[in-house]
Amino acid sequence: MPEIMDSSTAVNDSAVSGDASVSSSGNQMPPPKAEKKKRNLPGMPDPDAEVIALSPKTLMATNRFVCEICNKGFQRDQNLQLHRRGHNLPWKLRQRSSKEIRKRVYVCPEESCVHHDPSRALGDLTGIKKHYFRKHGEKKWKCEKCSKKYAVQSDWKAHSKICGTREYKCDCGTLFSRRDSFITHRAFCDALAVESAKEPVAPPSVEEELDPQTVDPSPPSPPVQSPPSVPTSSAAISLVLPDQTPALDSTELQDDPIPKSTQIINDTATPVQVASLTASCSSSSNSSNTGSTRSTVFASLFASSTASGSMHSQASGFTDFVHATAQADLIHDLGPSLSIEPTSLCLATNHGSSIFGTAGQECRQYALPPQPAMSATALLQKAAQMGAAATNASLLRGLGVVSSTSSSGQQHWNGQQFESGSASLAVGLGLGLPYDGGSGLKELMMGTPSVFNPKYTTLDLLGLGMAAGGGPTGELSALMTSIGGGLDPAPSYGNAEFSGEKYGRSS
Amino acid sequence: MQFTQTPPPPLHEITSFPSNINPMNKNQTLRTRQWPGFQTSKSLGSFGDANCMEQLLVHCANAIENNDATLAQQILWVLNNIAPSDGDSNQRLACGFLRALIARAARKGTCKILTGAVANVHITTHKFSIIELTGFVDLTPWHRFGFTAANAAILDAVEGYSIIHIIDFSLTHCMQIPTLIDAIANRLEGPPLVKLTVAGATEDVPPMLDLSYEELGMKLVNFARSRNIILEFRVIPSTSSNGFASFIEQLKVQNLVPANNGIEALVINCHMMLHYIPEETLNPFSFNNTSVSSLRTMFLKAIRSLDPTIVVLVDEDADFTSNNLVCRLRAAFNYLWIPYDTVDTFLPHGSKQRQWYEADMNWKIENVIAEEGVERVERLEPKSRWVQRMRNAGFRGGLFGEEAVMEVKNMLDEHAAGWGLKREEEDLVLTWKGHNVVFATAWIPS
């Protein structure tokens, strides 16, 4: 448990430290995490600040320093010590040595939180506590008037004082906190039209004593074309607007900009695998552990083939794609997808040929285009390398494992086997496409090299992939793992040209 | 619980992916759009990084342009898996581009099998009711910034005039006008007569409104009356595709713009509308051989000839004009991430408004990526080029007063912390996490 320092520094949201050290506090020390490069990093780095990381328990704790005589709790040890003097107990006030005054900043323990990053640490303990309560804590304090809830009592108190006093209300019942919003709404709201219709002759209010028609200093020349919409009622409608400028509750301002949705990841131990492919790649044994609602890569793939009907329903294209994944396992039919109605990103099953089917059949016919500065292969491999360095798995990371951890594997992908250059890795990717979660690519890949007949060409892996969809188990990840794990994949692929049927047998 | 121990790399070392990656360099990996203090997805690791997605999109675009169906489809597949439409902001952004590329591939015939399907998978943009639209533009400074800055500048410029003629070229269907009327009504010297002439664009570009301009005008007149202002509302049907030539002509034919006489101020308010006017990279045969200057230049000269009291030009600060697809894709990707990034700050996941908002963004992306020629109407130009155009047309920059700056700052205070205001010479620029978003410039005849 770290020593809680009383810090009088104001809350400081600006970036404090570029290379501050992180001192951990009763929490496990984390492994160093890849720090992403930021562009346009604002703020003044304060390299001297010491970054303190407190556990949620510490932050939530109130009155952690308890007097053993009367059980009175204190937030700070210093205060307890002062209290102990009253009981004639030994007490000790810590002297702050002048040379040890070092600016301290505090990071939020929520890994998903922006203030978890030392460069966005908060400048004082009170600040981080309030932040933690506001953003990650339960909102226990509810305003009786407007039902707005607050996590910090002082916020609630501040709001309660001004609740209802700084709002603009349209006759339609809508409330606004900002005058601009209210004005714009008011102008177009039917309530105003109703009001003007109801009161064709408004009693002259203070505002209306100046009749615009009479005080108009310089009547304009009549318009050549009468305006299309001159209202028939000539009565001026009085509109009573609150005079005070809306000043927003500062605490609300702090809270509002960052909605709850920022707390996507709460469980730091098991980062949510966002992409389905991530999930499927990272788990070699069991695709159900993905934690992702979107099912696996391969399932999505299949979804694309099976859900093509829904793809035709407008707009939601890829959403359907994704949503359909859940059903993919049930409905996928490998036969058609193999040869007759293949997937082709599933957009157009009706059109008879699958993208991947096409790819498999026509690969050799395509002359590879001139390479861009970095070929797609290289890009994907780089991406894979990046992925390998990242904390989370992804499909390409899986691929990356291949290329980054095993030089022989890389060679395999790039040089020896894939003469086709830029398309090769993508082809390799294409391989996995038609599989559903339970299909056998993994098996394929994990299989011993002897499975693959050396006379087959690599490109036909696609065809293989299609057929292998019928395989009972397996995942691409395993493939990757096995390759990355140092199995020399070269023999297994070497000029492989296996048909789906053959693969089916082998699995 | 994990705590970062690795010091961030020095600020100046912007590593551009993927040129200099090496295994020893894992801590200095990607150039990202992260801004300290704002969450971005960590779930995907660095693979979800915008750079990688951009690279894949670029390769895909190249493949489509080279008619390499195989490669295109493979990359499309990869993109489809790393960019779910309900993913984080980068993923949704990439998904928008993915759709646009598929649409382009289908239209181009690169991937014939896609054609039929894509014909049906078009983006449905929402038609807003007027009240929905008021709430919509109020959610973010994207439009409010321009409204606020422009209104402040206009209010300054029309001081002392007893007639104010506002010509409104606005994408947002007069959403700016109520606050302007309100401000004018509150001015010290008493309310003037306000004439409002609206360029009723016939193109269907989002946000689309479920109300005729006549009805809209009725409401505005009614509202102005409630603020003791007489408003003359006039709508002139027009189109940006001919540089509003018919609009300008009507102004002159109907003698709506009298010579500057010190009584009537002429305000020309251009809010995110002028970039729909064709510029030099588009040369439809209609004026290909008759004129050397673009419609955009001609339009600015035309409004200069009206001798306006002030011209306010607000637009998005990006360059979507390139005829090269990849250039355009890069430019759009490196600009349109902003709306996706900001949306988390003001709209909850799954809300209707969010769907509308992102559908409008997707529409924009598709227009930039999949359309060509006159169909490609989203032709943003950066501020610098607009400034040059305005100067060439005979304008000089007007100053936004301290009042305007204060108004904008106060407005930004009501929104998420990532928004910022930057002064660039005489202009104001709205920023998000330090990146230019929208610029506001004010001009007077020189």
TrEMBL record, chain A:
Coiled coil start-end:
none
Specify residue ranges for compositional bias: Low complexity. Answer: 10-27
User: Electron transport among the record's keywords?
Assistant: no
Cite the residue spans of the region called Disordered.
1-48, 200-233
CC annotations in GO: nucleus
Which keywords appear in this protein's UniProt record, sorted alphabetically?
DNA-binding, Metal-binding, Repeat, Transcription, Transcription regulation, Zinc, Zinc-finger
Q: Where is the composition biased (Pro residues)?
A: 217-230
Question: Ranges for the C2H2-type domain?
Answer: 65-87
**Oxidoreductase is among the record's keywords:** no
Q: Which Gene Ontology terms cover its molecular function? A: DNA binding; DNA-binding transcription factor activity; zinc ion binding
**Tell me, what's a Pfam family for it?**
C2CH-4th_BIRD-IDD
Q: What PANTHER family does UniProt report for this protein, alphabetically?
A: SERINE/THREONINE-PROTEIN KINASE RIO, ZINC FINGER PROTEIN GAI-ASSOCIATED FACTOR 1
The name on file for this protein is Protein indeterminate-domain 1
List the source organism: Heracleum sosnowskyi
TrEMBL record, chain B:
**Segments for region (Leucine repeat II (LRII)):** 215-247
Q: Where is this region: SAW?
A: 370-444
Q: Which UniProt keywords apply?
A: Transcription, Transcription regulation
Motif VHIID extends across 164-168
Xref: Pfam families: GRAS (PF03514)
Transcription: present as a keyword of the record? yes
Locate the region VHIID. 133-198
Q: Where is this region: Disordered?
A: 1-26
Name the InterPro entries on file.
TF_GRAS
What superkingdom does the record give? Eukaryota
Compositionally skewed regions (Pro residues) per UniProt: 1-11
User: Where is composition skewed (Polar residues) in this entry?
Assistant: 16-26
> What family is reported?
Belongs to the GRAS family.
**Protein name, UniProt field:** Scarecrow-like protein 32
